[in-house]
């Protein structure tokens, strides 16, 4: 048990720093948007920075492919070490990027390169950490253990928001807009250096060591597109089940602060505090929901999320628009995040449980990154587009529609809780539409 917890701790700590660097871009965007673009409409400047934020997502499929391949061929430890190295480099670039007044659009170009590196890193980080945490957990505890991926992701965002709150109370608005926004990226780069050391000393998972030693496909076959294409159904399933969850997650995390500030009219400090408190409760809910899935299965939680998101998104967003103070805004935000917990707490292990060991990292990474590029990374930009077009309520219907599509998938997919992660073969899985047979029972041939 001690070794399991050590693996979970090291994997989670690195994930926290990765997502701190990823989310502080969104959290501090309102302060540095004017630094890289000429004076003009505030919403237009936010759309420019949101566009660069979205570009990072479109790099994620490349990162998912490259780093997923590394994870399946060289090990989960190698992939996790490489991702944090790339993230550290991107944080340094943003911290030193020149402003528009100094270098014109050159600063925006540096920002773009940094976001591309972040996208490359996070594209591999999600799958590497999802695979690592799922494989490293004790049997019957995978839902609980893998839920720490979103605990660490949320912890990274909380650290970013907490730092923002501290800076808001110690620096003037002018100082934050001028140079204070660079501080979190310096902190992120330093944190990544610490995690780099931790990940170099982390232990490999037993499931990967098994595929290295016995029963798996040759090394040159692992982590290849050819191997992944043997599992096309599972890959498409990852894209479909991610669609609604990633849109809802980014709506109520990265976009929420801007929505409360720009649309609901709350002061920036109040909007930030609402997000911080809501995310703190959200992080605490993840292990509880993950443990529940170990008892009742993954599908009930996914279905609960999709039903809630489909029917509650429009009224929640409408009421948030008129939330005039801290407590109503916090209550509505918590309601939304409780619903989203049905997805976030278990999506890592569900995806990892769909694939055999030799292609598990790539199988999670590439389809998930594609879904995030199409839906998660564009969520904030789509929201601002609706706002700029004078049809802001249309975004709520968009989020609800994405959740409805995922609901259909959740209702038709198989239960994955009892999947045997020690299987290492690369052929098509038996029982793709039903529950897995016990590990000791040979799988019947499939046509």
UniProtKB/TrEMBL annotation:
<feature type="transmembrane region" description="Helical">
    <location>
        <begin position="107"/>
        <end position="128"/>
    </location>
</feature>
<comment type="function">
    <text>May be a proton symporter involved in the uptake of osmolytes such as proline and glycine betaine.</text>
</comment>
<dbReference type="InterPro" id="IPR020846">
    <property type="entry name" value="MFS_dom"/>
</dbReference>
<dbReference type="InterPro" id="IPR036259">
    <property type="entry name" value="MFS_trans_sf"/>
</dbReference>
<dbReference type="InterPro" id="IPR005829">
    <property type="entry name" value="Sugar_transporter_CS"/>
</dbReference>
<keyword id="KW-1133">Transmembrane helix</keyword>
<feature type="transmembrane region" description="Helical">
    <location>
        <begin position="148"/>
        <end position="167"/>
    </location>
</feature>
<keyword id="KW-0769">Symport</keyword>
<feature type="transmembrane region" description="Helical">
    <location>
        <begin position="362"/>
        <end position="383"/>
    </location>
</feature>
<comment type="similarity">
    <text>Belongs to the major facilitator superfamily. Metabolite:H+ Symporter (MHS) family (TC 2.A.1.6) family.</text>
</comment>
<feature type="transmembrane region" description="Helical">
    <location>
        <begin position="301"/>
        <end position="320"/>
    </location>
</feature>
<dbReference type="InterPro" id="IPR051084">
    <property type="entry name" value="H+-coupled_symporters"/>
</dbReference>
<feature type="transmembrane region" description="Helical">
    <location>
        <begin position="326"/>
        <end position="350"/>
    </location>
</feature>
<keyword id="KW-0812">Transmembrane</keyword>
<protein>
    <recommendedName>
        <fullName>Putative proline/betaine transporter</fullName>
    </recommendedName>
</protein>
<feature type="compositionally biased region" description="Low complexity">
    <location>
        <begin position="427"/>
        <end position="447"/>
    </location>
</feature>
<feature type="region of interest" description="Disordered">
    <location>
        <begin position="421"/>
        <end position="447"/>
    </location>
</feature>
<dbReference type="GO" id="GO:0005886">
    <property type="term" value="C:plasma membrane"/>
</dbReference>
<feature type="transmembrane region" description="Helical">
    <location>
        <begin position="79"/>
        <end position="101"/>
    </location>
</feature>
<feature type="transmembrane region" description="Helical">
    <location>
        <begin position="395"/>
        <end position="413"/>
    </location>
</feature>
<dbReference type="Pfam" id="PF07690">
    <property type="entry name" value="MFS_1"/>
</dbReference>
<feature type="transmembrane region" description="Helical">
    <location>
        <begin position="20"/>
        <end position="40"/>
    </location>
</feature>
<keyword id="KW-0472">Membrane</keyword>
<keyword id="KW-0813">Transport</keyword>
<feature type="transmembrane region" description="Helical">
    <location>
        <begin position="46"/>
        <end position="67"/>
    </location>
</feature>
<keyword id="KW-1003">Cell membrane</keyword>
<dbReference type="GO" id="GO:0015293">
    <property type="term" value="F:symporter activity"/>
</dbReference>
<feature type="domain" description="Major facilitator superfamily (MFS) profile">
    <location>
        <begin position="7"/>
        <end position="417"/>
    </location>
</feature>
<dbReference type="InterPro" id="IPR011701">
    <property type="entry name" value="MFS"/>
</dbReference>
<feature type="transmembrane region" description="Helical">
    <location>
        <begin position="179"/>
        <end position="198"/>
    </location>
</feature>
<feature type="transmembrane region" description="Helical">
    <location>
        <begin position="235"/>
        <end position="252"/>
    </location>
</feature>
<feature type="transmembrane region" description="Helical">
    <location>
        <begin position="272"/>
        <end position="289"/>
    </location>
</feature>
